[in-house]
Amino acid sequence: MRLACLVATPDIAEVPMALLNGSFEEKLAMARRLGYAGVELMVRDASELNPSGIKAALRRHELEVPQIATGELFGTDGLALVHPDGAVCRAAEQRLHDIVQLASLLGNRTMINIGRVRGRLDWFPPNARATARTRIVDAVQALCDYAAPYGVRITLEPCNRYELDFVNTTREGLEVASQVAKPNFGLMLDLFHMNIEDASIEGALREARQILWHLHIADSNRLPPGLGHLDFASIIATLREIDYEGYLSVEARALPDPHTAAGLAAEYMRQWL
Ligand code: LER
Ligand code: MN
After folding, report:
1. Which phi and psi angles does 197 have, rounded to 5°?
2. What's this model's pTM, rounded to 2 decimal places?
3. Which residue in 76, 173, 183, 242 has its CB near the most CB atoms, within 10 A?
4. Which residues lie with the beta carbon below 6 Å from any ligand 1 atom?
């Protein structure tokens, strides 16, 4: 298990969960200095980025990119894979294709998450929601097919009910994964969402073990680990028990500030890594 934290690329303005301060290069230098092995890049529009510059900076600071987070396609630009306006879905697909190409360039293991970018069912009238629900399976299958030749994997992230209205629990995530049934499709979990939706965090980690590829970590209040009441000793013991070999990626509120939050998380997690 290795530690990463979420870092925004230059196409993203200030967002609540982006850690570290300064230019992109300065953020990478600081991540490395704090002991992070990787950075999870928050990307909004890959066409605005300089992929070879990003790759070179990552190499300079010896950082991996386990995953690209896509939440800002929705958070900033309102794009979603499930949306009543087909043009919005197509724009989301195009952005995700661009991100697949970026991911393939950055490393041989970089994944792409489908969290908030999947959209909401309550944007549709009640009698259209069942059909909308099947749309996510079709959209993710198509994205997996696009990503496969690039060697890129896609992960679905269950998110709590206050943010999204479908695929809230780990079990629902597993259900959708079995419907998608693509070899480059797996699950990523987020302790903050699990703490709200799953009966047991440890139980859900065990249930997901076969396809658990990535994990977002934060404490119960979404502050950096160590500042809430989650039982990290028990969570880490469970991850060891299920032979989890992926990243623990800090997605926490950037408080008291984006730099201090990254430092606090690294310092607290060091005891287990
Ligand atoms: C949002 O709460 C979140 O956890 C993201 O990783 C999903 O887009
Ligand atoms: Mn998350």
Report:
1. -105, -30
2. 0.97
3. 173
4. 69, 71, 115-116, 157, 159, 163, 190, 216, 251
